């Protein structure tokens, strides 16, 4: 009797052992499987994102030769030089001004467009397509359009300015106007994307809310202020942070319209990095600038994650 | 709820004025691309329409080559992203293994690193691999994408887990399940991501500027920059013709996929 129960216990023990082994094996197997599915992405992220970012930080403490190899370790010197260089400080200033000029205007115009295009009207689809069209226009093409519009003698904008009795403006050559002109181009380019996202946000608001407001006899602007804007706030928050991040990454329109000029007025940070690295071959100090850009974007993304309730942004 | 006629009229007026202002630059470029240089220089309205600008643009520049390159690059990136993102999304939804959550955070972390900030070492990597002026140099760095993975993950999550269990009982492996069940079911979001990937790749500017030194793989965006900088004679008609050619493929794609794109982007953004 006791032998039998002993055997049973033993049996159970060995069964458990086998069971454990199988489970462990399965665990390893599923781990390998998971890694296999993820490995292409992880490999590419490592080679083209994580390693380069670490390398950027490393390079920022060195001087380099023209091929990008490190020559002399200089510690924080690149950073000290940056923050005492009037050119870089101006670049930072221009970048922040640019964010200030572009982000609020882009969001307000896009919000206005999204609100009027959200009405249930016949043919509204046509207008939606037009409003989102700038999303399909590349930075190079958009810059070429605006290069002509800003043309001092033939451009359409100066025609209007002169017709109104003012003096012609040097849109891209006058230091007082160049950053404004770049901002106008950027706002126009960004509207398509922000409009599309905001429209999506509007469409996901429960129509029940409006119906009950209608029953209470609420007016159009009351509903806009008390239902639409509050319900849209997560989308608005998302759009604002993405637009800020995009503004920090601006490059193409500068390269085509002003090349950073006049008098470095439009030398925004990415253009400044590009010039320092690929025109002046100063990879060390260019890397230090890139680290500054990285920190700026890191802060923005962190704010977005913290306050944006599990929202995801994309490049 | 029906709207009063007066209110409707106000909305139509607002919609129309906004559309005219917003579309004016594009329309202007389109009209100019068919105008003679004489008309453009004198600032008059078009007196006649001509295709000369397009002919000149194609004759003076290897536009066909640029267009071909852009198509190859955009399609390669699109396919690469679809494959890598769907594989990764599958692992995050259907596979359970140790370290999965950690890897998920790694994916999130990638969104905090702007490509522009890591562009200097990236350029050196491509150069050391001898990938300057090659399609792989223009495309492979963009295959892995966190946003695309999250977008597909959202969609895969809606596939019932019972389906996976049933397939396991039937002895179907994970890869076959991914290929024959998950991908077909998630077709819509794959199309959305594909459209998005094509659009952004076609419009890429900084990287192709750095990673190409000659016409062999140069994309049409950089070609347009060349066209603009080399046309010193103020031949705006030719430049605009070039710009119109550049935007036509993406505009068509956008017009066809606008609804899907809007839904997809909002979903990926706000979940």
Automatic annotation (TrEMBL), chain A:
Residues 92-304 form the ABC transmembrane type-1 domain. Keywords: Cell membrane, Membrane, Transmembrane, Transmembrane helix, Transport. It is found in: Cell membrane. The keyword Cell membrane applies. The keyword Transferase does not apply. InterPro entries: ABC_transporter_permease, MetI-like, MetI-like_sf. SUPFAM superfamilies: MetI-like. PANTHER family: ABC TRANSPORTER PERMEASE PROTEIN, INNER MEMBRANE ABC TRANSPORTER PERMEASE PROTEIN YCJO. This is Sugar ABC transporter permease. It comes from Oceanobacillus piezotolerans. The lineage of its organism: Bacteria, Bacillati, Bacillota, Bacilli, Bacillales.
Automatic annotation (TrEMBL), chain B:
It is a multi-pass membrane protein. Pfam families: BPD_transp_1. CDD domains: TM_PBP2. One of its GO terms (cellular component) is plasma membrane. Keywords: Cell membrane, Membrane, Transmembrane, Transmembrane helix, Transport. Residues 67-257 form the ABC transmembrane type-1 domain. Its main location: membrane. GO terms for biological process: transmembrane transport. Belongs to the binding-protein-dependent transport system permease family. This is Carbohydrate ABC transporter permease. It comes from Oceanobacillus piezotolerans. The lineage of its organism: Bacteria, Bacillati, Bacillota, Bacilli, Bacillales.
């Amino acid at each position: 009797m006791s032998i039998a129960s002993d055997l049973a216990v033993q049996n159970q023990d060995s069964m458990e052992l086998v069971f454990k082994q199988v489970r462990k094996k399965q665990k390893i197997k599923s781990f390998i499987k998971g890694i296999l599915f993820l490995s292409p992405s992880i490999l590419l992220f490592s080679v083209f994102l994580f390693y380069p970012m670490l390398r950027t930080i490393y390079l920022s403490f060195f001087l380099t030769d023209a091929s990008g190899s490190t020559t002399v370790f200089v510690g924080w010197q690149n950073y000290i030089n940056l923050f005492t260089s009037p050119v870089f400080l101006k670049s930072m200033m221009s970048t922040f001004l640019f964010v200030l000029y572009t982000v609020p205007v882009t969001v307000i115009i896009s919000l206005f467009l999204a609100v009027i295009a959200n009405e249930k009207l016949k043919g509204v689809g046509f207008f939606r397509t037009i409003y989102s069209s700038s999303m399909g226009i590349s930075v190079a093409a958009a810059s070429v359009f605006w290069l002509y519009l800003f043309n001092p003698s033939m451009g359409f904008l100066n025609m209007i300015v002169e017709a109104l009795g003012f003096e012609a403006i040097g849109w891209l050559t006058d230091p007082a106007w160049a950053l404004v002109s770049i901002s106008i181009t950027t706002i126009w380019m960004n509207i398509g994307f922000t409009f599309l996202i905001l429209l999506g946000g509007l469409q996901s608001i429960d129509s029940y809310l409006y119906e009950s407001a209608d029953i209470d006899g609420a007016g159009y602007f009351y509903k806009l202020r008390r239902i639409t804007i509050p319900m849209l706030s997560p989308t608005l928050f998302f759009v604002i942070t993405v637009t800020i991040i995009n503004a920090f990454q601006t490059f193409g329109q500068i390269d085509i319209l002003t090349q950073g000029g006049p008098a470095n007025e439009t030398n925004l940070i990415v253009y400044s990095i590009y010039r320092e690295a690929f025109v002046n071959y100063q990879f060390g100090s260019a890397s230090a600038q890139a680290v500054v850009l990285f920190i700026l974007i890191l802060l923005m993304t962190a704010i977005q994650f913290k306050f944006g309730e599990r929202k995801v942004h994309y490049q | 709820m029906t709207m009063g006629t007066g209110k409707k009229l106000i909305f139509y007026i607002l919609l129309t004025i906004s559309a005219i202002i917003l579309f004016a630059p594009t329309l202007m470029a389109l009209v100019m691309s068919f105008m003679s240089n004489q008309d453009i220089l004198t600032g008059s309205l078009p007196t006649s329409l001509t295709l000369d600008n397009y002919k000149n643009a194609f004759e003076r520049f290897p536009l066909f080559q640029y267009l071909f390159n852009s198509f190859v690059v955009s399609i390669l990136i699109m396919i690469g992203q679809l494959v890598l993102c769907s594989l990764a999304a599958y692992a995050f939804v259907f596979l359970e293994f140790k370290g999965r959550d950690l890897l998920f955070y790694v994916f999130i972390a990638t969104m905090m690193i702007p490509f522009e900030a890591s562009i200097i070492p990236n350029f050196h990597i491509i150069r050391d691999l001898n990938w300057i002026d090659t399609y792989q140099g223009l495309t492979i760095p963009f295959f892995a994408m966190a946003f695309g993975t999250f977008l597909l993950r959202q969609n895969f999550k809606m596939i019932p887990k019972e389906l996976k269990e049933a397939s396991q009982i039937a002895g179907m492996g994970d890869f076959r399940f991914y290929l024959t069940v998950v991908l077909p079911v998630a077709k819509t979001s794959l199309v959305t991501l594909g459209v998005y990937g094509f659009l952004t790749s076609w419009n890429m500017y900084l990287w192709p500027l750095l990673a190409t030194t000659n016409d062999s793989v140069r994309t049409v965006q950089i070609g347009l920059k060349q066209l603009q900088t080399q046309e010193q004679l103020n031949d705006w008609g030719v430049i605009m013709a070039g710009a119109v050619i550049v935007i036509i493929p993406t505009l068509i794609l956008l017009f066809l996929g606008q609804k899907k794109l809007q839904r997809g982007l909002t979903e990926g953004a706000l979940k």
